[in-house]
Design brief:
Oligomer: single chain
Strand order of the largest sheet: 16-17-18-19-1-22-21-20
Number of strands: 22
Radius of gyration: 17 Å
Number of domains: 1
Strand content: over 45%
CATH architecture: Beta Barrel
Distance between the termini: 44 Å
CATH class: Mainly Beta
CATH topology: Lipocalin
Amino acid sequence: MKLHPVSILILFTVLASAHGAEPSRCLEALGSSGVSRDGTPIYGYRVVERYRHDAMAFTQGLLLRDGDLYESVGLYGHSELRRVDLASGDVLNRQPLAKSRFGEGLASDGRRLVQLTWRAGEGLIYRLSDLEPLGRFSYSGEGWGLAFDGRQFLLSDGTAKLRFLHGQSLEEQGEVEVHDGCGPVRLLNELEVINGKVWANVWMTDYLLVADPGDGRVLAWVDLSGLLAAEDRNPNTDVLNGIAYDPADRSLLLTGKRWPWLYRVRLRARR
């Protein structure tokens, strides 16, 4: 189904009203329990620092490289790739996408940046050093999140699947279904690989999951409820989305679609 850009905005707004819904039956009605129904750990968080973030940026992909943030921004007519100064939030460099392209997940293999688009079946490749376009590639279905594990790219498409793309050719070469003890976990969105494990936003929720890319099993949940304060929200504020990892201090950088802040957080046990 093709939607007019205004219709897409309305759709996102309506679906975002489910913000905070549980992504798995294993998490339903658990209160402050530190484990899910199937025994999977649930972590909370502690905010270490916060940084300015463009409140008009519909954040789809996020990564940190040499102290700078790289961000994929979505929506038709507004999509672009950005290099952002973390400390100030200023955009240092940008590459706009064609108006017919909706920017999605973003990952880097250390030389290139690879950006997905939503429904066009087209990925975009850039030179990391200056964001110059290098080429394009094709994939089936929708593109949501993207990450690189040091050998291959991992792609989410809004289902419970993680699809594996060859590290050089970007050809698809397998998939795994993400699941916990209550079944498949769908709506996997932005991805990050940290120490060999896949971290994923679950769309329309305040949860991250951590999964084993080998068998797709959910190893942990992170409950980020309340990360963006009520006073920082407005009618345009959308859902949590965007995970970057800082290996220097092993913290997470998190934001959302049209959020005015980006947060540096550490995990803590939820009691």
